[in-house]
Every structure is written in structure tokens, then in C-alpha cells.
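R.M. (postdoc): so does anyone remember the format we settled on? I'll just put the C-alpha cells first.
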């Protein structure tokens, strides 16, 4: 149940956002409003440094000056790249906000790694690795994001059988609040390495990052439709098959038969001589944006989409390189309706509890009636490194997409749905992903992340002035 206070805040949300996000004429001359992918977090900042691609030494010198000035004025610092987050980790009120440029990527074939810099985007990594016949071992499912940002949220992808991205990172160079630069790795400054991995930018600015790459390959998709109750065991078995290089699943989203049917898609190497060239721009999904968007308010469109995925997709087949599958922008499924926004949830379930989760969703959705567009299932190997691990044991990730109006009433409805789903997931021994809307209760965060108090204490140790702060820190860690 949403408390009276939280309901009051949500009901006055529009006025509050406008008042905070769009200050009066005098203040407008000295402040800039930034937002994130949710379009629900307009936040004024005092300084916005749009960092440009420049020599590393110049960037480091400027960064130190910005940190020193912010500290002297007791102003928080937040760093971002694409700002495609929804959970406020790249935003803070009256802060110094730094938006990083897309820096180069330097592959090292002998070491089997690539070096990315503060703002390097995944599309730049793929462009650098592809001509050499390599591919990032793990990356997010779209190429728009910054590599260091991916480490900071410890995102996972759909190459298998990997854990989150941090498991493939060998070392980082981190600038702390006082301007000190440290190399952090599993062997050097290990604690800071584990804290910064999924640390949401709260421990410093990542200047460089070295991560693993793997050979690129031509892959062919195999589509298998099944009852949802069969999916978890078959999916876990598939990702343990050495021949499977990438894998994901889908569940039906139409209200009739909600999450009762599943589709498993696995990719295996295909000899180039036998298959010819892969299709240009081959996407990981055969769903077009038009079909995807038609689902809003239409159960018929949701059924049509499921037919497209389970019948049309397999009939057409899919052969593409690993890099082609990874090299997809967020805009492929972007919403062009300014009155609505897409909201993501992500839940991490022990595989044996996935069926219980789908049953819980059917119960919750029947009462809450959300505009539910998609659920993608991915495998995440155990993360034994990051302090805030969301997958301490192997998990199946359920990445869920909802559409909602940009109104306080719609946000209140989404808050209630989120709280209830998180309660269900925690009861099943699972966890949830933090970088989306700040709708979880503090007690829910503490249950899903048992190292939360340790994380906050070490944050205060390494950054006693709390220079690196964001909306997420205020909601979940501060106080």
C-alpha cells in the first residue's frame, strides 16, 4: 500500500517537477535543466560541462579543476554519457553535471582486450574491434551507452554464459574526489574495484577501462516455442552448451494467456562459406517499431506480435555476425508519442522460481492493469565480485517494458505496481535492478541488496565530503 505521504508527493508531482525543473527568469540564467530517458526527472544543475574529445592529459586537468571548484562550493558532482538511465544516477539537483564525449577505443589483439576511455560508447568499440575480427565479450543490449557507464551499473547482456559486464573487466583507472588517480583491479585496490563495479558513479570518475574481447563470428538463430513452464530448465541447459554463443527468451504479453507461452532463441556459429553474407543491419528481433508500438491499447496487436515472433521470425530465419546483433541503437523501438514514456523494470530470479514469478505477475497485473509491452529473458551467471551484486547466484533476468503517460497519476500507478512486484520477487529469493525509476521502498532495497550498509559506509570512507552524489544516493543510500 502506498503511504498517504507518498501519494501526496505523487499527486503534486507535476507542479513540483515544473517548479524544480524550470526555475524563474533570474535562476534560468545560471541553471540548466537535465533529464534522463524516463522524461520524468527534470533536474536543474548549476554547471553542465559538455566534455569534448581532447587529449587525456587536458581532460584530467580540467576534471580536477571541476571537482575542486564543486567541492569548495559544496556542490555535488554527477557524471553521465548517454543518460539513458531512469533511476537518477546521472542527475543531482544544483550539481556540477559532466557529460562525457565519445572517446576512442584501442584494441590489444595480443592481450585479448580493448581499452576504453571515460566517454567511449559501445558503437565506437564495435567499430574498432570489427575490422580486426573481434567483438566485446559482454555489452549492454544497445550500442548507445558509455562503456564506463555500463561498468558503473554493472549491466549484463545476452552473450552467454557470462555474468554482468564487470566480470570481463580487468582493470580501471579511477579519479577519486580529491583528484587522486588509482588503478583498480582484482589484484590492485580490489575493494575500490568491487565498489565501483555497479557503484553508480558514487566513488569517482572512471578515466580508462580495460575489458575482454572475443572473436567475432557468423551466427545462426534457432527458434523454439514452448510452454512457459518449460522455459527455465531448457534455457539453463542451452546456455551451458558450448556451441551456443548468444541467447534470449520472450514471454507472451497479451492479457489472455499472459506469460503462458515462451520463445527461446539461441545463436550458434555458422560457417561463412555455407551461409553467404549476413543480412544488412540484422537485428536481434524481427519485430518492427510499428508492430511494437501498435501494442499500446491493443490486445489484438499483442497477439499479432507474438505470431510474428514465433511463426514469421523462424520462417524467415536469422543469420548475422555477433557484432551485427550487438550493434543496435535504442531508437529501434523508441516511442515518438511525447505524451507517453517507456518504463523498464528488471527482476533477477533463481531459475527454479521463474514459473512462480510469472504466476505472481498474472495476479498483480489482473489488479493493476499496466500497459505491458514486452518481457525479454536473459541468463546472468553468478556475480561474486561487485559489492552490490544483483545476481549472487545464477539468475534469469526478466527485462520488462511498460508504457505510461507522463502524468503524476500514471506515475503513482507505476509506483504501486513496482512496489508489489518487488515484494513478490524478494519473496521468491530474487532481486531487482536499481537504475530504473526510484519507486522501490528503502526496506525493499535493503532486502534485495544485503551489502547496502557496507556500501554506504565505504562510500563515506572514500568520499567523506560526499562530492559524488545523485538522486539514487539520496533515495536509497543517504541519510
Amino acid at each position: 500500500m502506498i503511504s498517504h505521504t507518498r501519494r501526496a508527493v505523487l499527486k503534486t508531482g507535476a507542479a513540483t517537477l515544473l517548479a524544480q525543473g524550470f526555475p524563474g527568469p533570474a535562476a534560468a540564467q545560471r541553471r540548466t535543466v537535465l533529464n534522463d530517458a524516463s522524461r520524468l526527472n527534470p533536474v536543474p544543475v548549476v554547471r553542465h560541462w559538455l566534455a569534448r574529445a581532447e587529449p587525456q592529459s587536458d581532460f584530467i586537468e580540467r576534471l580536477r579543476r571541476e571537482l575542486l571548484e564543486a567541492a569548495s562550493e559544496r556542490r555535488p558532482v554527477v557524471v553521465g554519457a548517454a543518460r539513458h538511465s531512469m533511476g537518477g544516477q546521472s542527475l543531482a539537483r544544483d550539481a556540477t553535471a559532466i557529460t562525457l564525449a565519445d572517446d576512442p577505443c584501442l584494441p590489444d589483439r595480443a592481450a585479448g582486450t580493448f581499452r576504453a576511455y571515460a566517454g567511449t560508447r559501445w558503437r565506437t568499440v564495435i567499430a574498432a574491434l570489427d575490422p580486426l575480427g573481434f567483438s566485446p565479450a559482454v555489452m549492454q543490449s544497445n550500442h548507445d551507452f558509455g562503456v564506463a557507464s555500463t561498468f558503473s551499473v554493472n549491466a549484463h547482456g545476452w552473450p552467454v554464459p557470462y555474468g554482468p559486464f564487470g566480470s570481463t573487466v580487468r582493470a580501471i583507472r579511477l579519479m577519486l574526489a580529491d583528484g587522486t588517480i588509482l588503478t583498480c583491479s582484482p589484484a590492485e585496490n580490489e575493494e575500490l574495484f568491487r565498489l565501483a563495479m555497479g557503484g553508480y558513479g558514487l566513488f569517482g570518475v572512471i578515466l580508462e577501462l580495460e575489458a575482454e574481447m572475443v572473436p567475432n563470428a557468423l551466427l545462426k538463430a534457432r527458434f523454439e516455442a514452448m510452454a512457459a513452464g518449460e522455459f527455465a530448465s531448457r534455457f539453463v541447459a542451452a546456455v551451458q552448451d558450448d556451441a551456443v554463443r548468444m541467447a534470449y527468451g520472450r514471454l507472451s504479453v497479451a492479457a489472455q494467456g499472459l506469460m503462458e507461452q515462451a520463445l527461446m532463441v539461441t545463436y550458434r556459429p555458422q560457417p561463412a562459406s555455407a551461409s553467404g553474407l549476413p543480412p544488412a543491419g540484422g537485428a536481434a528481433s524481427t519485430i518492427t517499431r510499428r508492430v511494437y508500438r501498435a501494442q499500446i491499447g491493443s490486445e489484438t496487436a499483442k497477439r499479432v506480435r507474438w505470431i510474428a515472433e514465433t511463426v514469421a521470425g523462424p520462417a524467415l530465419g536469422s543469420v548475422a555476425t555477433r557484432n551485427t546483433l550487438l550493434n543496435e541503437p535504442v531508437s529501434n523501438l523508441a516511442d515518438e508519442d511525447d505524451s507517453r514514456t517507456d518504463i523498464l523494470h528488471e527482476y533477477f530470479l533463481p531459475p527454479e522460481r521463474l514459473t512462480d514469478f510469472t504466476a505472481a505477475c498474472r495476479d498483480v497485473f489482473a489488479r493493476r492493469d499496466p500497459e505491458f509491452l514486452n518481457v525479454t529473458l536473459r541468463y546472468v551467471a553468478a556475480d561474486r565480485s561487485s559489492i552490490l551484486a544483483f545476481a549472487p547466484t545464477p539468475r534469469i533476468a526478466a527485462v520488462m517494458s511498460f508504457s505510461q503517460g507522463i502524468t503524476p497519476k500514471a506515475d503513482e500507478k507505476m509506483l504501486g505496481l513496482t512496489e508489489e512486484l518487488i515484494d513478490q520477487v524478494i519473496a521468491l529469493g530474487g532481486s531487482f535492478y536499481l537504475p530504473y525509476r526510484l519507486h522501490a521502498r528503502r526496506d525493499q532495497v535493503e532486502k534485495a541488496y544485503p551489502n547496502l550498509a557496507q556500501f554506504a559506509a565505504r562510500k563515506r570512507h572514500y568520499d567523506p565530503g560526499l562530492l559524488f552524489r545523485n538522486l539514487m544516493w539520496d533515495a536509497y543510500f543517504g541519510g
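R.M.: ...and that's the designed sequence above, right after the C-alpha cells. Also worth knowing: The chain has a mean pLDDT of 90. Residues 218-442 form a domain with the Alpha-Beta Plaits fold (CATH 3.30.70.2520).
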